[in-house]
Amino acid sequence: MPFGEIVCGSPGSGKSTYCYGKYQLFTALQRPISIVNLDPANDTLPYPCAIDISSLITLGDVMDKHGLGPNGGMLYCMEYLEANFDWLEERLKELGDDAYVLFDLPGQVELSTNHESVKNIVEKLTKNSFRLAAVHFCDAHYITDASKYVSVLLLSLRAMLQLELPHINVLSKIDLLSQYGDLDFNLDFYTEVQDLSYLENTLSASLPPRFSALNMAMISLIEDYGLVGFETLAVEDKNLMLNLTRVIDRATGYVFVPPAGSNQPPGTIEENNTGPAIRPNTYALFSSAVAPLQGPGSDVRDIQERWIDAKEEYDAFERKEWRKEGEMVRDQAARASKIRERKAPASNLNASDDMQL
Ligand SMILES: Nc1nc2c(ncn2[C@@H]2O[C@H](COP(=O)(O)OP(=O)(O)O)[C@@H](O)[C@H]2O)c(=O)[nH]1
Ligand SMILES: [Mg+2]
């Protein structure tokens, strides 16, 4: 049964970068992964692409042929893909039953909030036995301003209700957050979306008083649904990538069993002496359990410390570790080449002996 992620979110929120980061991570973990680019405006793809919508249709052609602007052209492309779903279906079949597919969507928000094509495509994929989760990206910059934060919450809620998939919201580029000044609240306030009434004062300060009733109505609407929460991501932070992977695996029910004889990076599987076939990724195995996820990157307070409160200290520490690692690699290489040199004259000697004989 194929599994996958619908990677959506506003333009520039980090979808394509995430797809590439996940491709690198999964390749290192020897987990299957294929990326399908469904954004016809993506000219330069950072990742190796298994299926590319631009071999079916391109935004430029649609705009030229039908006299449409970029936004209308994008909607046309998605409708065209929906009408030609068999094109996608055929290519997905070639990826096999064990495929794990990332669908990199265009950034136009209406595609995942109110336009029907993406929803219909997702429905068709689910009927084709795909187990999917929607991974919705929002730039973490938005949490620095209360009114932008409320708009992001509404957007995420709308996408959740529209796509009708297990839904994971992600605050992306968390590593840049400390650049935007102090947050009004701790990071967990924004990720857990618990008591939004605390935002009332900040919202009233930034908007004319006539909006205050509207603000409170929006806040209570979001709270009434009680659906929105956020994971955090800095694409270069391995712990955050692994944690997000666990969250998504749990949502889709994916269990990864590492291939026999493979060496997995520490912390990604349970380490004991049993063989790999009976040593699956336990984080994913308990996907149906309701217990909170554990492991590095899962506690938002740690993330606040790493990326906001003590970012510079951690960055300096990491740089030092990398330097040490670099020196070790260089030393090893130097030692290996010395050993080679020492062996080389002996073998040359043998070769000349052979010639004399
Ligand atoms: N610092 C930082 N930059 C990021 C991160 N993810 C994406 N970006 C940058 O954000 C920009 C937009 O990313 P892209 O993946 O093209 O966004 P998309 O339009 O949603 O596909 C690029 O310049 C990326 O390098 C991240 O985790 N940290
Ligand atoms: Mg992109």
UniProtKB/TrEMBL annotation:
InterPro entries per UniProt: Gpn (IPR004130), Gpn2 (IPR030231), P-loop_NTPase (IPR027417)
Transmembrane domains' residue ranges: none
Keyword Repressor attributed: no
GO molecular function: GTP binding; GTPase activity
Keyword annotations of the record: GTP-binding, Hydrolase, Nucleotide-binding
Signal peptide span: none
Comp. bias (Basic and acidic residues): 323-344
SUPFAM superfamilies (UniProt xref): P-loop containing nucleoside triphosphate hydrolases
Region (Disordered): 323-357
Subunit and partners: Binds to RNA polymerase II (RNAPII).
Family membership noted in the UniProt record: Belongs to the GPN-loop GTPase family.
Record function comment: Small GTPase required for proper localization of RNA polymerase II and III (RNAPII and RNAPIII). May act at an RNAP assembly step prior to nuclear import.
PANTHER family with a match to the protein in the record: GPN-LOOP GTPASE 2, XPA-BINDING PROTEIN 1-RELATED
This protein's name: GPN-loop GTPase 2
